[in-house]
Amino acid sequence: MTNSVIKMVQAIERDYGSVASKEAANDPRLKALQKRFSDPVGHPKKVYKNARIRKAQQLLDNSNLPKYKIAEQVGYNKDYFGKLCADGFLDDSKWYISRKHLHHYKYFCDDKLIAEGTINQIAMKLGKSPSSIRGCTLSSYKKYKHEHFYRLVKVR
Length: 156
What we know:
The chain is mainly alpha-helical. Helices cover 55% and strands 10% of the residues.
């Protein structure tokens, strides 16, 4: 399939000099290729015709809900919803910005407050990675005895 697409584009370029020329834009072969391999980011009107996608985009832009809850409200599987975001059918940039500093935590060591802030801020203050800060919330961490017991408590 790839070779046939390349050959078709080369044939169009032979006829018009470039696919970007005005004359080539009216070529039925190029229109067929553009229709088949359309870019959802380049054609947002086509993508947002679906009411569920429009509603999902609105919820992403205006709510602080987690993505899996937005997917449930709209009626998508959470994996499919994630794929829509990854493929560019949904723009989740505003969602990331609005949720970036949403959760603040207090980090304790043996019931003594060490740091507070977002997980990234706490990690930077203590010189640890964010995953090691989050690690104390895992059930596997709580199973075993430790010399120092760390605890992460969500404030808001």
